[in-house]
From TrEMBL:
Membrane topology category: Peripheral membrane protein
Lineage, opening ranks: Eukaryota, Metazoa, Chordata, Craniata, Vertebrata
Keywords per UniProt: Cell membrane, Cytoplasm, Lipid-binding, Membrane, Nucleus, Phosphoprotein, Repeat
The protein's name: Pleckstrin homology domain-containing family A member 1 isoform X6
Chief site of localization: membrane
InterPro entries, A to Z: PH-like_dom_sf, PH_domain, PI-Interact_SigTrans_Reg
Organism for this UniProt entry: Betta splendens (Siamese fighting fish)
Pfam families linked to this entry: PH
Amino acid sequence: MPYTDRQNRICGFLDIEENENSGRFLRRYFILDTQQDSLLWYMDNPQNLPKVAEPMGTVKLTYISKVSDATKLRPKAEFCFVLNTGRRKFYLQANDQQDLVDWITALTNATKITVPKKSESLTTSADTPHEIPAPSKQVSTKTEIIAGVPVITTTQEQGGAQVRAERGGLKPSHNPVPYYLSRAAQGQAVVKAIKTGYCVKQGAVMKNWKRRYFTLEENALSYYKSEQDKEPLRLILLKEILKVQECKDRDLMMRDNLFEVVTTSRNFYVQADSPEDMHSWIKAISGAIVAQRGPGRSANTRVRCDSDVLTFPQ
């Protein structure tokens, strides 16, 4: 989801078709800066790049004539929307339906234009459940239990290609392997993952920040150099975690969406892509720890829960 940073700019990750009509979308970090009248995108969050890093692209907000849902124009690109400028069209792909709504709304407000009627059906109410619109044709459904959570999936045929729409707030996977599978290759034994995704982690020695792919499973939190790697750079056993909380020193580090995982050996500082993602990781890790240790603890090993701080006595 897009979020507002310390400079009052709307920020977040989107996929962009940098070469028009190429059909190839690349992940970029976007900054909507109304003070500079610009929409900029970088290879990563500028906080993780050298200070001299220049944006990979920029569009003046005054050049944007229309913002609209492009799902019908690009049926193979889910949650796609388009920016129409005088020179070309920029196709962008959001992470989910609510992310699509939030970006269209933010860009609409920034450019002071009216979104076309075909997009007005997109709700922006925070109280409305965030679901992908149901297909008009009758489809089959399947219920799976993933990490103790029931997930309903629907299957729809579009242009000969099978498209899966995940419900319950889970983003569809673009990988033929279901998103909850472990790093093991297809055909080998697999383990269900509770949560996966990219975050930025501080190194233990050099104190530099690098993007890593995190996987939370029933017994451990692991991180990899990339999503394609099979062997983790490090595996943190859940039984070694003492506390998970939003980082209190983030003002000192000047980083948004920062949380820390306190273990018996060291503190891990992790930066999520948005406040929602940060809270999601804190709750997922905390929930996995509680599930692993079970209700059979004595009175002096109770879990203390204050907002987004969970302490787990050993």
